[in-house]
Amino acid sequence: MPPLDGIRVIALTGERGAYCAKLLADLGADVFDVEPPGGSNERTLPPLLRSDPAVSLHFLHFHRGRQSVVLDRETPEGYDTFERLVASADVLIEDESSPSLDHEALRAVNPGLIHARITGFGAVGPRADWKSSDLVAQAAGSLMYRMGFPEDPPNSMGEGFAHHQSSAHAAGGILLALARRDATGEGGFVDVSLQEGIALMQYDVMPMYVTHRTLIKRAGHGQGSSGKRYRRIWECNPGLVRFQLLSQSSDREWPLLLDWLESHGHGEGLRDERWIDPAARTAGLNELEPVFDRFFRTMDARTLMHEAQDRGIMLMAFNSVGELTTDPQLAGEGFFRTISHDGASLTDAGPPYRFASGLREGASTPALGNGPDSLSVQPSPSFPRRRESSSPDAPLAGLRVCDFTWVIAGPLHTKWLAAYGAEVIKIERFKKGTALNRGNMSPDSVVSFNNLNVGKRSLALDMSFEEARDAIVRLVERSDVVVDNFGPDVLPNWGFTPERLAEINPRIITMSMPALGKTGPHRLYKGLGSYFQARAALDGLIGYPHRDITDVGFAYADTTCNAGHALVALLAALHRRNVTGLGEHIELRQLESTINYLGPALLEYEANGEEPARTGSRSRHLAPQGVYRCDGDDQWCALTVASNEEWAALCRLIGRDAWADDDRFADAVRRTARHNEIDEAIEAWTSRRGPHDAAATLQAAGVAASAVLHAGQLIDDDPQMASRDFYRRFPDGGVVESAPFILSDAEPHFPSASAPDYGEGTRYVLSEVLGLDDATVAQMFESGTAGE
Predict the structure, then answer these.
(1) Would you say 179 and 571 are in contact if contact means Cβ atoms under 8 Å apart?
(2) 544 and 459, same structural domain?
(3) 201 contacts: CB under 8 Å, gap ≥ 6
(4) Which residues span the domain enclosing 462?
(5) Could you say which of 679, 710, 741 is where a domain stops?
């Protein structure tokens, strides 16, 4: 059965919460869209089906597997029906598409209800009432400050990005609340802020600023998370590839690169002594990059990818949206889903993970009011305690996680588990005298490592020893979860297949996060988050229309697309185990998880035969929207007009009162046609004001706006973030971001701002968790099986 079978969800959502409800529906929950008479405006959102413009491809993607209930909550009869729905529900999701609901009133109707609210700036704080939009959230969360080229206005990640990000976080918060309810019988309130969701995804910005006072600015192509400039996107003949020469020129990889270049008659002089030292290669990038540029232009992108990967070199070809369904690693691997509409079959992205026990399949998109006329309403549910060791403020207390993750996506996922009470034991590779996971870390990498691994224990083992593998067997027997994001053969080569782990502990939940998958022709290809973005076609949708593909500069796929989805999947499996007692195996293929973000774009290509256009910071259905220069050097304000009332308010502010009643600007379609003219008038107004003053003035008039913040402003000066204690500060000067949501009565627990010292928990785990005697533990240290 699907993991959320039997869970009833009431969705009062628009764009912001659509993906949250979709994730829950795909996991098996019964989701009821509560729509007003005439239907939700999501039914009209672009992209639209060209052959039938009344059909929203956005709606087809996000609402598959749901039912529609039509009621008017403003009438006594409608509100009575709504209350009966609430009384029967497990979860209620709302966003700013409708007036907010009083949590205490809902709790009085149903004490076990899990109530999630997704808003621009959060449900509490001095800016809780500020209006927001997808673009405004990206500005307020400091993402736009680093996006694009210095000669252009700051860029966005594309329309819908903040909504998708925060919706996934809301689903994680709901399922964490469900884990607590499984243990305590109590419902809860989940508060999700778009601003915080955007801030959280930038795992590199906060530690770089706090530790080095470095601001990562937009610099066009070739800027990494540390702020260093180097090229990452390369032209081929034809096509583009992502390749990071700076990080692919270690002592292990440099000889592989030379052999490859020389096999094609390139690379003359690169075996000179001057290039032996990695530091010299870093310093000499300006000389090395033209060599690789000439080589890459000699062949097509896919040939380069296959040759490089066959040699153990990380390089990935870019896909367009239209190329995804024919990608050999995706086609035939069961990822894509088919949607039928008026006799036509369209290909849609599937769920971001695979459950061995299965997910919901074959569901259709609801017609307006297709839900039952009279929903079965039970009395307010009573939920028994299931795990007496849990405590309300630490929903995952008593849960033990065997953590085989590294780099970013996996450690970020398990960091959130640790923050809410799980005991996370990070297994680190050990060779006597060398800490393999940390031995070659740069100072910048140490900063990120600390941020991603707070609250965990470190167990250092040399897995080539049988005694180390035996220790893992004992640990799995005593654990609830095993997570890894290694290549597909690493754990199996140590004897730990999902089947073997289930034999050791039938209640174990295992999660594998391979780059491309455990099966398929490219399953052994190497990749990191930024490489998945290229192959998943996401990077191709970002940027202003006059630019080529924009290099984002960091692996945003690692946060929501992979870590966020991993949290949702794991907590759903935990609920299933709480109900059935059964373990689960989850495979989260990071490429597929990243593509999941592209559902509407994929449908648009399938239905209309066109690649989605890059729109910069503009919207396809709201106007005006953009980023506008303010008084001062590189100072900007983002704003969105979402209604004719907001348009009239903007016109009055910028001194264009007559435009409010001018038919040329009567709706978003006509305003879009005159967007350049409107932009000039707005910028004439903003350029005379500082960005904070402009944003505050716009908000006071009822228009969504924010200054484009940088990391320093977000961490040190933002009153909303400070009031919500988003950045946790420690006496030693360290700072850790909070969790991606606020769950009532459950504060995330960060004991320090640092990761554990290497092997810090080895003796504790061997002695106290595994129960090994002193002589055995001493022998393991002496032989080099264990380290610290």
Answers:
(1) yes
(2) yes
(3) 141, 143, 165, 556, 559, 560
(4) 400-595
(5) 710
| Beta bridge partner(s), residue 483 | 403, 511
* CA of residue 489 relative to chain centroid, distance: 26
Tokens of 540: 């191709």
CA angle 118, 121, 127 (to 5 degrees): 135
Domain boundary among 557, 573, 595: 595
Pairing relationship of beta strands 584-587 and 509-512 according to DSSP bridges: parallel
Residues 196/726, Cβ–Cβ less than 8 Å = yes
**Structure confidence by residue, pLDDT tens digits, 2-33:** 999 999 999 999 999 999 999 999 999 999 99
Here the tokens at position 7 are 């869970």
Angle 73-74-75 from CA coordinates, rounded to 5°: 90
- Residue 746: CB atoms within 10 A of its CB come to 24
In this structure, are 632 and 700 located in the same domain? Answer: yes
Compute the distance between CA of residue 549 and CA of residue 19 in angstroms, rounded to an integer.
Answer: 26
Residue 241 in contact with residue 234, Cβ under 8 Å?
A: yes
The domain tally of the chain equals 3
Mean pLDDT of 117-138: 98
CA distance 6 to 9: 10
Integer Cα distance of 181 and 395 in angstroms: 9
68 pairs with which residues across the strands?
33
- Determine the pLDDT at residue 432: 57
Sign of CA dihedral 571, 574, 580, 583: positive
**Per the confidence metrics, is the pTM higher than 0.90?**
yes
- Nearest to residue 627, comparing CAs of 160, 133, 3? 133
Closest Cα partner for 119 from 166, 82, 156?
Answer: 166
- Residue 441: pLDDT over 80: no
Q: Are residues 441 and 567 in the same domain?
A: yes
Q: Which helix (H) or strand (E) holds 443?
A: helix 443-452
Does 631 lie in the same domain as 577? no
273 and 407 fall within a common domain: no
In a domain, residue 44? The reply is: no
Q: Tell me, yes or no, whether 454 and 493 share the same domain.
A: yes
688-717 residue pLDDT tens? 999 999 999 999 999 999 999 999 999 999
Choosing from 393, 558, 725, 773, the catalytic residue is 558
Task: Tell me the backbone φ, ψ of residue 490, rounded to 5 degrees.
Answer: -65, -60
Model confidence at 373, in pLDDT bands (50, 70, 90)?
low
353-372, pLDDT tens digit by residue? 999 999 987 678 889 988 77
Is the pLDDT assigned to residue 433 strictly greater than 50?
no
Q: Does residue 576 sit in the same domain as residue 635?
A: no
Are 550 and 649 in the same domain? no
What are the strands, taking DSSP E only, across 202-269? 233-235, 240-242
Angle, alpha carbons 455-456-459 (nearest 5°): 160
Residue 262 counted as domain residue: yes
Decide if 670 is inside a domain: yes
Q: Is residue 445 very low, low, confident or very high in pLDDT (cuts 50, 70, 90)?
A: low
Known active-site residue 182: no
Residue 227 is predicted with a pLDDT of 52
Q: State the residue for tokens 């770089």.
A: 208
